Structure of AB hydrolase-1 domain-containing protein:
Amino acid sequence: MHMAGTDQDEFVDPSDLADPDSRFCEFNGVQIHHKIRDGGQPNASLERIGSLSHSHQSKRITNFPMVLLHGFGASVFSWERAMKPLAKISGSKVLAFDRPAFGLTSRPIPVDNRALNPYSMMFSVLATHYFIHCLAADKAVLVGHSAGGGVALEAYFEAPERVAALILVDPAIVAPFTSQKDNQSAGNSHIDNRNSESSLSSKKWNLFGKLLSILTNFTKLVAQVITGIVKGMGQMLNSLCMKVLAAFLRSSITLCLVRLVISMFGTTLLRCAWYDRTQVTEYILEGYTKPLRVKGWDRALVEYVIAMLTDSKLRSKPPLSQRLSEIKCPVLIVTGDKDRFIPAWNSERLSQAIPGSCYEVIKNSGHLPHEERVEEFVSVVDRFFQKVFGEVEEPLLQVVS
């Protein structure tokens, strides 16, 4: 199959590819494409999903809208089949938006002196909170798939009070390795400190001990100065290397290579995301490849990679794996048991690192359970809402294939 967007004369403006229900808004100079579904309004797009049946006698009304964050190479399209059912079970609005470099969001050329790089993680985080504000909500449920899971977590840490719950779908987040060694070493340290307490107190007024302490502190100070100088030189060299790398990535050779790789392997990678590849219809292929017809899609993809490599704000923070224990809101982690990209064991370990999180595995599903197994995915989210938000009497609409 020929991949759209590999011929230069096919490029068009994002608005030319918009759907009837597409919306655009400007945020920090970027026209962001998004869609909204309301739990209280019917929508013809449900015909693509199937009929609805009243199979439960109750329904959660969370009163919290949901913001859906797509993964790498995806867009609002990946949430199309799940948006309306999610709006139904939440009883609120569901919004999905295209992050810069993907979907139908504009692809500006970043300026070096610009305060906020549109392709950076922080831009996506702030855009997420911008949409929470647009939905006139104090809090929202953030749903992040794959790389969107990282955005969801960073958005939580940016403003925890604005996040009612987190739902991470096959999250592209490296889980930490758990170990009991820290606890054991902490216990041994306590014993050692207690045993040495008497010897330290006996040297309290010892002149030699005081001089040794002064010498030790001075040595530490010198070491810190030397370390700071070496670190500064390393940062300068690193910055220089990053600039050289960025210049290479922006070259015509790299852009041609990006177009070639997408043309040769794009469809194959897309099919690999499904467990049952027969579900990848021409309609789905068109939905995923349509953004490749947007002007500058290749350069924007390169800028996204450069932003990931050179994001100083992101690198200044501890890795997400070291901050998972700080999460206080309800968390649901969902994974497909046949995911070829993010193994299920990583998601399970991730759930073990987040206190009180729920972990669900969807059978016979690949990397995209919210697309490949819509009914099961919505049911999992529904049970999660029932657990954390309670329920009221009202018929629940479920998706039926």
